[in-house]
Amino acid sequence: MQNFPLVSVICLSYNHEAYVVEALNSVINQTYSNIELLIADDCSSDHSVGVIQDWLQHHPNVYFSANEKNLGNTKTFNQLAKKAKGEFIIDLAADDVLLPNCIEKQVTTFQNSKYENLGIVYGNLIEIDKNGNSIRNYYTEEDHPESGNIYKMVIGRTTKICSVSSMVKKSVFEKLGYYDENLAYEDLDLWVRASRVYEFEYIPDFLVKKRELSTSLSAFFTQRNNKKTKRLHESSLAILKKAYVLNQTKDEYKALLGRIRFEFYKFLKSKEYLLLFQLLILGLKTKYKSVF
């Protein structure tokens, strides 16, 4: 590995006119200098494109593409990830902020790791509101984010995953086929598939500020009669089915039952009864595998 390998930061914007400049500046103001920044706007209905274009006047060498129609996060990211030249990739939403030494700490962790098959490093983050005020720390003293083989942690939800603070080897994306474009959200699926094949390493430092908004995906998981909510639950069910196939031991099936129970209450609260029935069937199959 080079001493200063190229890191590609992919910044995705969708109606982020109020925040995108702060996100972009957080990339170019890193203590680590060998960075390739690629920006995409997914057909925003606000003035995000104009704000980005104004910023680009002072940064003409940064790549920017604007979708003529909304493609969704997974497709838009994949298009840029395949163009990326870096050895490592960061997926940055345009309303989040990298702390100044984020990339330096991530690269250093890759270079000094004891794990020979390391694919992803991740750290802690600070959740902030629309005005940038701190709300909470993502990981607290009660959480125990793991390193090494974290597959059971990911599928079992014994500890939350923190994809926003992660850096991924581009070779991981190439091996796994990038984000699954059939899904409404991508992070859990990538972590399930990657943790089956690669080791992870946790950095016990704050690397990112993640903005929590009323329009964030997390706000839609328990809404009723909402097309976006239904799409999210369809994606969750598809990811759980993938994990079921990837599992190899009774303990892993027991771990998966924990996440199925967690998703059960979200499906129930949003009254997605057909999906709930399918989740129950998967739960019964998983329970059987955990015993026999």
UniProtKB/TrEMBL annotation:
A GO molecular function held by the record: glycosyltransferase activity
Organism: Flavobacterium fragile
Domain Glycosyltransferase 2-like as annotated: residue spans: 8-176
Domain of life from the UniProt record: Bacteria
Keywords: Glycosyltransferase, Transferase
Signal peptide location: none
Keyword Transferase: yes
Pfam families from the UniProt entry: Glycos_transf_2
EC annotation from Swiss-Prot or TrEMBL: 2.4.-.-
InterPro entries: Glyco_trans_2-like, Nucleotide-diphossugar_trans
Keyword Nucleotide-binding tagged: no
Broadest EC class assigned to this enzyme: transferase
Annotated protein name in UniProt: Glycosyltransferase
Transmembrane stretches, start-end: none
